[in-house]
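CORE FACILITY INTAKE
Project code: CF-77B
Contact: R.S. (postdoc)
Sample description: multi-component assembly, two entities in total
Requested service: structural model of the whole complex
Turnaround: standard
Below are the sequence entries exactly as provided by the requester. Do not edit them.
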Amino acid sequence: MKRALICILLFVAAIVQAADEPAVAVHYKQACLLRDKGDFAAAIEEVSKGIALNPLEKEWLAKSELLSAGLYLEMGMNESASVTARQVQMLYPGTGFETKASEILEKINQLTEQSEQSEQSE
Amino acid sequence: MINIARTSIFKGGAVAGLIATLLLCTSVFAEELVIEEKTPEEIRAAMSASGLFAEAGQLLKQMNYDSAVPYLTDYLVRMKESKDERVLALMQDVRFKLGKINVLLGNQGKAQAYYEEYMSGAPVYRRREVLKSLAVSYFESKEYVKSISAVTNAFAPPPAQVVEKKNEGKVEDLSRQERGGLTKRQLKRYQEEAQEYKDEFFDDLSADKPPEEPEYTLQEKVLLNMTLAESCSGLSRWKESVEPYQFVIDHAEKMERRGFAIMKLVTSYSKLKEYERVHELIAGLAVSDIRYDIRVNMAMMNAASALFNVAQYDNALMLYRMILPRRALADFHLERANTLRRDTGMREMNITLSTNESGRVESLLGYKYADTSLDGGASGVQIEMPPELVEIEESIGSLLSLAPYEDDVIYRIGQLYYECGRPWEALSAFDLITSRDPEGDQGLRAFCDAIQVLSSPLELYDRMEKRCLSFLDAHTDGVLPRQVAYHLTAAYQKQEKFKEIKGLRPYLDGFDSLDAIDPSMKLMAEQYECELYYMQAIADLMLLNYNAAQQGFDVVLEKFPKSHQEGNVRYWHAMTQLFLQDYAVAFDELEYYLSKFPKGNWVASAWFQGGICLFAQEQYDEAKQRFAYVIDTFPASAVYSDACSMRGDILGSEGALEEAVRDYREAIKAAVKVNQATYATFQMAAVFEAESDSDEGKYDEIIELVNGYLDRYKEQADVAKAAYWLGKIKLAQGLVGEAVDAYLDTVLKYGDDIRQDGVDLIISELMTTARKLDPADRDALKVRLKSALDTEENVTLQLRLRVMQAEMNDAKIDLGETLIAELKDLTQAPPPVLAVICDASFAKKDYSRSREILKIFKDYFEESEYMRSAFKLRAYDLFEQKHYDEAMKIVGEAQGLYGVDYDTAWAQVMKGRIELAQSKLDEARASFKMILTVRIWRGEPYAEACYYLGQTEEQAGDFKKAFAWYQRTYFLYKGHAGGYWAAEGYLASARCLESLGRAGDMRNTYRAMLYDKYVNSLPQAEVARQALGTDEVLEISGKIEAGLQTNLTVTIESEEI
């Protein structure tokens, strides 16, 4: 009985927490789940919904944009990935997000170089 | 004005005498009468200069500025001739005053005129003030150049003034002139009154030199710099605007003014393309409280928009992200206000959201303005509102009353995402706006943008199509449905879904009338609709439904006369005529296009296609000139290469092979599409083949040419056609085995593509070669074909292999019959397969699919050699149906394309037969006789020609001549066509002899027929048997069995045939 009560309380707490959570965070988390399932198209659509809200919560917005850049890359949309990562760098200077965006850009550069090399060898 | 009149009458001392005089002369009602009779102008005219001056002073004291103006202006007029320095100084002061009053009254033009007069006059005691006022006034009336000049003058040191030192003296010492027309007492009184009232205007009405004008204060300098910067911006003199904006940013006291100047400087820098400075300013703004000002927010929107327009997406995005929602701004200022309230002991206020009657959310500011009681009034003690608090509360109030702009920001960010390459974010932003306001202007605009993103770059066509169709099902009025249909059509075009485009036609026809659309939007709606009908016609063109396309273009011309698409429509209308092979009409329409749209999109093409029309009408010289014109005039056009090739073709046909090769080389060099190079390359190869005397040299040239083509275009090249030419050379060099291997490899590699017409050329060449192979090699080839066929899954290649197999087994007709039943959709059959079907149909006299097959050839395989069979089948079909003119047209086309090739004799025979059927006997005779002059047609065509010449003469009633031709048929050509024409000749001869009343000769002819081993087993021999009877037939059979050979001949005198 006590255990059931604790479960109910935890559940209610979770609901309350979810209700307090900004929409951008909800979209971000849902997108992460979809990405983990390998459904990149659905994931990017989901995370974009949060970004489109133009929220004031910079932390979640930055996370979302970084996720979006990664998803573009997964989907082979390197140009979009590059633009998104570059804008993350610009919008969040001096933060960990900027560092991660730089990593994505580095990865894109490597992929581009590889692709150019393979084209040349062909 | 009555009021002014009264005032002036009762208070103007100078007028008192006049009134007294009037009162003496009139009745008791005289006063009223006089007032009504005198106009204000007349009253002022009756006043002395001092009276005018005094009256103006009174009015100014009462702050009745408007009424003072006429007195002051009249004073200036009255005193204009005065040279007295004090009067001049007084007049300058009046001008200054009039300038100020007009600024106050909003009459910028008049104010400027007085100020300008002031500045050009003397003395100028208030230079700085006047220039400041002038600068602002010019700016407000958008006279930016003058405004800049005023500010520049204001900052410049004043010009040196030569002021004659005068003893100012006392009022008592001044002359009346020096007193500006005033009495000593009046002047004194006014000065005393001025001191008493401290009225600036009145106080200023003075001829005295005021104290030295002070330097501008910092605040004034900020104002002047802002005016200068804004005027420069107004004139797009961005560089000059930078320094004054920067001054404002550095010195303005108010945060809002600094913020506004920053945003304006952002715009200037972005116009100057100094984006690093833009970025610095924006980054600086991001960390300051300036962005919490609503004016700054609005300026940020404008600056972001300006940056967006010059594709500075990163900076624009940064700005858009900084724009705060109204609620956030209000909360910020609310917190400031509440801090002040707490400090002053007042109750805090809050913002309440409520829903009004129409369901919109409204913000209400609680406890504002008036609530200045301590503790909300509990203590009953009232306190004074701090001015800063009043200002903050007013700004919150105006903020909350602003139209919502948050969605506009999201929409613009969506557009930005789209442009900079973040399509998913763009889609979500547009969808968000649509969901918030589905039927509002912005929601609908966002809907349209979203479908564009879905189409490109996301290419989620199914989702886009679903949204569009659902929208079109529900909306029929206004611009938007037309816009949506346009985007959907464009998406279908991209996918080459032309049938789907045609499927949209009912939606188009179902749109509400254009007349029902708001006039401001009608033009746009019309353009979309015009575009839609145009695209419908283009879809028909792409579906090769030329007649429907033509009708479609007619609809556009009729429904939208003089539309933006008229030029294109006219051109494509002409092209449909060309595709329908109505070359003369097509030519005329192209000429019309060129005359009406000399700068149209298709000028070069129209010239070129006109040449094609001339070429098709065999007007080769004119065509050549036309192509030469295109070559000389439009060297950069898309049709330049084609024109070179076409001129090369004509030159080649004229035997000018060197010139032809030069044109082909140019065509290859200038080709912008691979097919242009392909055409020129292989035409040139054909010229080399025909031209060169030395085989080796010829082969080398062709090999070099073809390899060069393959190197240049790689996988885009028509490899099969190249292989065909290289194989031909191998064959010519005697390398038959290698050629066969190469050919078969190419067929197996590229034969799965129906459009590879080079494969079909190879099949034809390979089959010709196979006939010359020794039996062992032939068998080996058959085995390889069977093996390939057994393993091949691609239907197109299977069909090609089956044709090759049937050809090698002499079973083409059987295969054709099988395929007629097997292939319901002939569009998937490659040309050799269609040709086999034609041959089988011809053998069975089944012409039911002749039209369909010829259309497929013309639409898809116009260059194919296999089209000959289709022409033949179609011509026979039309002939059987007695559609002689149409049949003759087909014959003409076939002859135009193939001339006197070995397998086109049928066309000349058909030509004669049509003429015969139309009783054009001379023409028929000439046509049949022409066959006998072409050596390549010796054989069956000769037999046919002789037979039909007999028919011609028989129809002409000349049985002797007819007999002679029939006899020649069975004498000379009995070995051809299995004796068919010989047998027909025998029977026709007998018929002629009967007509000539020579029954014996007729019987002898029948007997000869039965003795003739080439024909006596044919079905026609049964006629002879019937005519001769059983006994005679048995006798002849017996004699033949006994080995008797007859020498029966019938001789008839006839004219030379």
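Facility notes:
- Chain B has 55 helices and two strands.
- The first strand of chain B starts at residue 351 and ends at 355.
Invoice: internal transfer
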